Amino acid sequence: MKAFVVSEYAHPTKIQLTHDAPEPVPTPGSDDLLIDVHSSGLNYFDILQSQGNYQTQPPLAGTVVTAPPGSPYKPGDRVFGSSQGGHAERVVANPIDVLPLPDTLSFDEGAGLFITYPTSYEALVGRANLQAVAPVLAAAGGLGMVAVQIGKLDLARTVGGADFVVDYTKEGWEQEVRKITGGRGGRIREALKCIVWGGRALVVGFAGGEIEKLSLHLVLLKNASIIGIYWGSYRKHNPKRTREIWDEIFALFASGRLKAVLYPGRYTLETLSQGLQDLENRKTWGKVIARVREPSLRGKL
């Protein structure tokens, strides 16, 4: 079995694809599912995790191979979710980390669902109670693209995509945000300089690889709120809200108001290291996907 195996911590560019990895086996007596992986999602945290600096599991989409008696899933079911070892041809997953993949979505689209969509949706809708103006920093990535769409759903002006674009790598971008928003705000430290009085800054991750240190006097002077959102903890701490979020996201997809935005360049397990390097170097946009296996003529992509 081909798999991206981390035998010792290193940058992804120094990890070779394993062609003879042992196939995973569900634990006897458990509810585990054995899944044929069709597509997996590439993430900034993969770069951190391969170096021992992160805990989240990679998202994936595929078909169930085996399921225990009494399971809500059966062989052949199309699913998406997350599991350690997801960058491989097969993986074992706990059913609590898996959901049915809607027939209207491809495996590539499903592999981009599990982390980016609920994180952006709950950050803006649930945690920040999105209102008039929603500046989105790093809007070209998977999370950012979703956040832009959600901002537009609530009729918010979205700085970073859709209505306005600001290059945050250029000096003076804070002033440009103030100009666009009529004096209101829009990387956390710099964003706090131009945030509106009483505004809210959402922390969804650290794509730059470094955890920022804040000068809290800006929070005080702006009467601002800093709100964290870690989707990985919702299953444990708020399972009811987890189900609600997915129902709301699926409804938006069904209505056509929310769409998958995938980077057109497809990677494979053989080129996964290159894909992560391109992601790290900001050479991609949207959700980056690795095509693990080509679809059958009868199946969806």
Please tell me about this protein's structure.
- InterPro entries: ADH-like_C (IPR013149), ADH-like_N (IPR013154), ER (IPR020843), GroES-like_sf (IPR011032), NAD(P)-bd_dom_sf (IPR036291), Zn-ADH-like_protein (IPR051397).
- This is Chaperonin 10-like protein.
- It comes from Multifurca ochricompacta.
- This protein is 29% helix and 15% strand.
- The chain is globular.
- It is an alpha+beta fold.
- Mean pLDDT is 82; it is low at 155-162 and 297-301.
- The strands form 2 sheets. Strands 1, 2, 3, 4, 5, 8 and 9 form a 7-stranded mixed sheet that branches. Strands 6-7 form a two-stranded parallel sheet.
- The chain has 10 helices and 9 strands.
- Helix 3 (116-127) packs across helix 4 (142-153) and helix 5 crosses helix 6.
- 39% of the residues are buried.
- The chain starts with 32 loop residues before the first strand and ends in a 10-residue tail after the last strand.
- Helix 10 links the parallel strand 8 (267-268) and strand 9 (288-291).
- The chain has 2 domains: 12-113 and 261-291, Alpha-Beta Complex (Quinone Oxidoreductase, Chain A, domain 1), CATH 3.90.180.10; 116-231, NAD(P)-binding Rossmann-like Domain (Rossmann fold, 3-Layer(aba) Sandwich).
- The protein has helices spanning 44-49, 107-111, 116-127, 142-153, 173-180, 188-194, 216-221, 234-237, 239-255, 272-280; strands spanning 33-42, 59-66, 78-82, 90-93, 98-100, 200-203, 225-228, 267-268, 288-291.
